[in-house]
Every structure is written in structure tokens, then in C-alpha cells.
Design brief:
about 240 residues, mainly alpha, 12 helices, about 75% helix, about 0% strand, globular
């Protein structure tokens, strides 16, 4: 698809998603007080939303879940930053167990929608703006094809991985959805768990630095390394088998 056609397709998709989010928020049951809903961009925003939804969800639990899921999918589909605040909000609203399940499923579903959007409209745009990054990732995927799932899983587990770029680049590199979806769902589970757990004690949190501490980052990095080991082992075994 030509760059202009791809850009038009992305714009139309974004408008459709925005209208969907708008209509969902518009038709929510009204509350006693006026409150302008918006995406949380800092801790104060999250705490303000929690205060509003705390009473509202007592009578409109399903409406809160619908609004949260729609907003989460919207951010994931269009690679809008701020998932940490949505995860904090989930933990505060739904409790630890429910919030982890909800955020993991929404993360995987939203990333898959981003995957499909990129597959339809993103190839020419990504190759134009990120040719070096695409080439580097393509080489890594090629060298890890014997343990591709474990490679993808380790990328998601590593706390500094650019998930937005992985979501958009994966279809261009020929990564199958059967690997993509579970690697996102499982790989981002520790991150979602930490954020949701923090959301459960939101009143005690004063900074984002309280969430991903250096110690936690190190542990997540070690888990990512361990996740990559089966893929490395499979590659080594294949090389030895060829030599024999």
C-alpha cells in the first residue's frame, strides 16, 4: 500500500476509534456530580478518577468496566503512552486479582489490534521512518527463529523494551499472531501485576519511582534472560545436529 493511502487508512481508523470511545463515554449513566472524564497522565489524575468512580461504580459497575476496557483498548491500539496509569487505576478500582486478569487480556487484545492496524497500513510508514530499527529487529528475529516464541517473550519481559514499536513491527517481520498474542499476554504479566498491586495501595504512592524500583527492574531483567534461554538452547542444539 502506498504511503498516502496508508496514512489515510490510519487517520480513518483513529477517527473511528475516537468516535467509539466518545460515544461510550457519552452514553454512560449520569452521576450526581459533574466530572469530565480524561486519560490519567499523572498520579493526581489517577487518584481523582478513583475518587469519582469509587461511588459511581456502586450503582454502575458494568458501565465502569465497559468504559475502562474501551479506553484501555483505545490507548493500546494506537500506541498512546500511559499504560502505567491505566494499570494503577485498574488496581484501585477492581482489586488485585481481577485487575491483573483484565489488564493482561486488554494488553494482549489492544496490542493485537495495533498489530492488525500496522499489518494493514503501517508497513510503508515504518520502513520510511524506522528503517534501521526494523532491519536490526529483523536480524534478531531471523537468528532466533528456532526459539522465536521465547525470544518474543523475553523482549516483553525486559522492562525497557519499546512495546509500542514491537506491536507495530511484528506483522512486518512476519511474526505469527499465534506467537504474538500469548507472548504479550504472558510477557507483560509481571509489569501489569506490579502496577496493579501498587494501584491497590494508591494512597501510599507519591511517585512513579515507587513502582519500578531498580531492584524490581533488575529482577524483571533476569526473568527476561531466563525466558530467552530455551530459545538459545534450541539454536545450539540445531547447530550441533547439523555438524553431526
Amino acid at each position: 500500500m502506498k504511503p498516502l493511502a496508508s496514512l489515510v487508512g490510519l487517520i480513518l481508523s483513529f477517527l473511528f476509534g475516537t468516535l467509539t470511545l466518545y460515544f461510550v463515554s457519552t452514553f454512560l449513566p449520569s452521576s450526581n456530580g459533574k466530572y469530565v472524564l480524561s486519560f490519567p497522565s499523572n498520579l493526581e489524575n489517577v487518584k481523582s478518577l478513583v475518587e469519582f468512580f469509587k461511588d459511581y461504580k456502586k450503582e454502575h459497575q458494568s458501565a465502569v468496566v465497559l468504559m475502562f476496557c474501551t479506553a484501555y483498548l483505545y490507548k493500546q491500539t494506537f500506541a498512546i503512552p500511559g499504560s502505567v496509569f491505566m494499570n494503577l487505576l485498574a488496581g484501585a478500582l477492581f482489586g488485585l486479582e481481577k485487575s491483573v486478569v483484565i489488564t493482561c487480556l486488554l494488553t494482549a487484545c489492544g496490542a493485537s489490534l495495533c498489530f492488525m492496524l500496522s499489518k494493514c497500513f503501517g508497513r510503508s510508514i515504518l520502513l520510511y521512518y524506522f528503517p534501521d530499527r526494523i532491519k536490526t529487529l529483523e536480524e534478531k528475529v531471523h537468528t532466533s527463529e528456532d526459539g522465536l516464541f521465547f525470544f518474543l517473550l523475553s523482549l516483553r519481559l525486559f522492562p525497557m523494551s519499546p512495546n509500542w514499536f514491537l506491536n507495530m513491527a511484528s506483522p512486518i517481520l512476519g511474526i505469527p499472531m499465534t506467537y504474538f498474542f500469548p507472548s504479550v499476554c504472558i510477557g507483560l504479566m509481571p509489569y501489569n501485576f506490579i502496577c496493579c498491586q501498587t494501584g491497590c495501595i494508591l494512597s501510599e504512592v507519591t511517585s512513579l519511582n515507587d513502582i519500578l524500583t531498580p531492584n524490581i527492574m533488575l529482577k524483571m531483567s533476569l526473568v527476561a534472560v531466563c525466558a530467552a534461554l530455551p530459545g538459545v538452547a534450541a539454536k545450539v542444539y540445531k547447530v550441533k545436529a547439523k555438524r553431526q
